[in-house]
Amino acid sequence: MSCPHLLGHQPPQSQPGPSRLTPGELIAAVKKTPLDDSEAQRLIDVILNKQGGGGGDGGDWVDTSKGSHTNEVKNLQRQLEEKKVLLEEEAARTKSITDRMNLLRQELNQAKSQVSIVSC
Q1: Residue 41 in contact with residue 50, Cβ under 8 Å?
Q2: What is the DSSP track for the chain?
Q3: Would the pTM count as exceeding 0.90?
Q4: Under a CB-based contact definition with an 8 Å cutoff, are residues 94 and 102 in contact?
Q5: Torsion angle, CA of 63/66/72/74, rounded to 10 degrees?
Q6: Which of 8, 20, 92, 119 is the most buried (most CB within 10 A)?
Q7: d(CA 4, CA 61)
Q8: How many CA atoms within 13 Å lie on the side-chain side of 26?
Q9: 10 Å Cβ neighbour count for 3?
């Protein structure tokens, strides 16, 4: 199975049976094909799936259109969880720095009051 249908590129009609693009031909076809954001993302997903061994025996391209919405939602949920963890870590660092700053401010004020008492 080849990838031309993903790129809007039709194989030459003179070739009988399914045609296969070489990697160079595929790259050239991708460069020449105008893609909107969703089409580009779909192409990226297909290539990443191919790279990750998700193509079965590694010889066929995998059409992710059926599960792409589910995968996209899972990826977004995972990214959201990662962002929540990072936000919680940042909030903890901010609280720690604020607490330390308040403690140092108290120590500074105590030192100032002791200096003013001694100098009087």
Answers
A1: no
A2: --SHHHHT-PPPTTS-S-----HHHHHHHHHHS---HHHHHHHHHHHHHHHTT-STTTTS----TTTHHHHHHHHHHHHHHHHHHHHHHHHHHHHHHHHHHHHHHHHHHHHHHHHHHHH-
A3: no
A4: no
A5: -120
A6: 20
A7: 11
A8: 14
A9: 19
Provide CB contacts within 8 A for 54, sequence distance 6+.
Answer: 62
